[in-house]
Amino acid sequence: MSTVAEQLRAMLPVSPDAYPQNLDLARGRLLVIFFDAAGYRAASFLDDRVLGPATRGSWLPLQDVLAAARAVPAPRPLHFIFHTGHVGSTLLSRLLDETGDVLGLREPLPLRVLADAGDGPSQPRPGSGAAPFEALLEAMLRLWSRGYDSTRAVVVKATSSAGRLAMPLLEARPQSRAVYLNLRAEPYLATLLGGPNSITDLRGHGPGRLRRLGARVSARLAPIEAMSPGELAALGWLAESLSQREALRRHPERVLGLDFDALLADAAGTLGRVLVHFGLEAPPAFLAGIAGSPVLQRYSKAPDQPFSPALRLALLDASRRLNRDEIVRGLAWIEQLGRTEPPVAELLSAAA
User: Fold this and answer.
1) How large is the average pLDDT for residues 297-308?
2) According to the model, what pLDDT value does residue 119 have?
3) How far is CA 178 from the centre of its chain?
4) How far apart are CA 79 and CA 248, in angstroms?
5) Would you report the helix, strand and coil content of the chain in percent, each value rounded to 5?
C-alpha cells in the first residue's frame, strides 16, 4: 500500500487535490496536503489556516517537486489579483468563483515565502542545496496552473505585500494578466485605522514597507518607532500604491487598475471588465444577477459574517470620526513627501 507521500507525489503533476501548502527553503522541501474543490472555494487564505487535525499531507523534497511541476500535462491560463491591502481583493476573487469557470487561489503561502526570498541579498534565499529562486518560482507557477475539468482559468490572489513580485510573475508568464486593486488615500487610511488590530498589523508590515519606500525616495524616512498610527497607515498606502503604479506603467495592456469603491458602485460592470481582461466570457444574465449575489452581503474573508457595502460605509464614517487626527496626520505625511519626491508627486497627480 502506498504511503501518503507516494500518493501525493503521484497526484502533484495532475490534480489540484494535491495542494502545495508551504515552502521550506532552509530544508529544501514543500508541504503538500490533500485538498479538494470545495476546500478551495471555502478558503479565504491558503496558508496555515487551512490546516487542521484532519489534514493529511507530507513534506516532499524540492527535487521531486520540480520534477512534478515539469510534468504538469495541461496547464490552464494563469492570472493574478494584486492589491494594496483591505481593498476588496478577496471579494473580487469570490465573485470570480461564482462564474464556475475560475479556480481561485487566495493568498497561497508559498507566494509569500518567495516574495520574502526574492527581496535581495539581505533576505533569506534558497541555500546551496536548494533550487534557485527562478526555478522555484517556475515550479509554483506550473503547479498553480493545474485545474479541474470545469476550470477555464486559475486566478491567484496575492497577499498585499506579495505585490512586489508582480514584475517577476508577469515576466515569467507573458500570457498572464493581472488586476491591481487600490483605494484613494483617505478611505484607505480610514479603513486601516478602523480595524480592531490595526496598530499590530501596521507595525508588523511597517519594516518591509519602509525598506521598499526608502529604495524609491531620496528623503530620510523616520524609523517605524517614531511614526504615528496615521503615518504608518500612510506608509502602507504609499509603498503599495507605488508598487501598483510600477506594474501599471510597465505593463499597461496586461495590468488593469481597479478602485474598490468603483467595484462596489458597479459590481456587474467591473466584474465584466475583469472577465474580458482575463479572456473569459461574461454572460449578460450572469452579470445581471451579480448585484443580488449573497457574496456582496457577506464578509469575504469570513463568509459566515454579514458585511454589506452599506455596513462598510457606516464603519468608514465611524473611523473618520474616531481617527480624524491620525487620518489628517497621515495625509499630511504623504503630501509632504510629494513636495520633494518625484515618484510620490507623480502618484498623487495621477490619483487626483
Assistant:
1) 92
2) 65
3) 11
4) 15
5) 55, 15, 30
